[in-house]
Amino acid sequence: MSSDYGDHFLGSEIPQGGSAALFQILPVPYERTVSYGGGTALGPAAIIEASSQLEVWDGRSRPADLGIHTHPAVDCSGGEAEAVARIAAATAAIVNSGGMPVAIGGEHTVTGGVVQGLLDAGLRDFGVVQIDAHADLRDAYQGNPLSHASVMKRVVDLGIPLFQLGIRAYCEEEAAIRRQYGVHSLDADQLVPNNISAFELPADFPQQVFFTLDIDGMDPSIFPSTGTPVPGGLGWYQTLGLFESVASQRTVIGFDLMEFAPIEGFHAYQFAAAQLLYKMMGIVQRLR
Ligand SMILES: [Mn+2]
């Protein structure tokens, strides 16, 4: 057991991986534009602390063998644009040193900074696959273009192809933006009742994919620990299956887990989030 148990992912089991580690965990306790329940600023620390309860063997392989390094939390103080720029800089530094960014939020606005960081590091020709309850395609929400409800509009505005999974809450403006930008989607009412956990990406979808997992895309019976829960979400195995389906067809260049807000006294949820992230690392490991 290391002396800084709880300070880094799987801290009870493995030392910090350093810059040679594949998985570079970036905690981003950014919380500004919460529209309903709060608490996402506490998400990264709760998940990292809970990760100490994980087994190094994930049931199929040992993702930790590729190295896991946990960065200090990104400073999210100051103006919104300033904080998003710090997220982008931290992400670009990870990519430039050969690591794979694994960001833990924080509200979904964080993903906009991470995607900007991928671009800043010179990555081109990648798509984004998003699991979410909400489309997040409003041009602005409550007057704010950096709202978590607008983050995927910022992504498509950059010309990045987007595939949405599990959406079940969106407005007419977002439906129009989907059509206008050619956003691909398999919504919750298609995936969940039919228990679909694999799908085919369009042939012209980029070969490299950044995968963003808004925890509210999953069902609130599994993760009530989020600000804007919506019933009818994805199941545990279904979510992992969809991620594996993407990773088996394309190269995953990074992923994130956003909008996790711990509920005091219910540690099951942060353990589940830590396990989900570790199982995603396992899928990346086994498919590379
Ligand atoms: Mn979202």
UniProtKB/TrEMBL annotation:
Cofactor(s) required for function per UniProt: Mn(2+)
Q: Which InterPro entries match?
A: Agmatinase-rel, Ureohydrolase, Ureohydrolase_dom_sf, Ureohydrolase_Mn_BS
Q: Which residues are noted in the entry as Mn(2+)-binding? A: 108, 132, 134, 136, 214, 216
> GO annotations under biological process?
putrescine biosynthetic process from arginine, via agmatine
Q: Which Pfam families match?
A: Arginase
CDD domains found in the cross-reference section:
Agmatinase-like_2
UniProt superkingdom: Bacteria
Q: What top-level class of enzyme does the UniProt entry assign?
A: hydrolase
Q: How is the cofactor bound?
A: Binds 2 manganese ions per subunit.
| Keywords assigned | Hydrolase, Manganese, Metal-binding
Write the Enzyme Commission number(s) for this entry. 3.5.3.11
A GO molecular function for this record?
metal ion binding
Q: Which family does it belong to?
A: Belongs to the arginase family. Agmatinase subfamily.
Q: What is this protein called?
A: Agmatinase
Species of provenance:
Gammaproteobacteria bacterium LSUCC0057
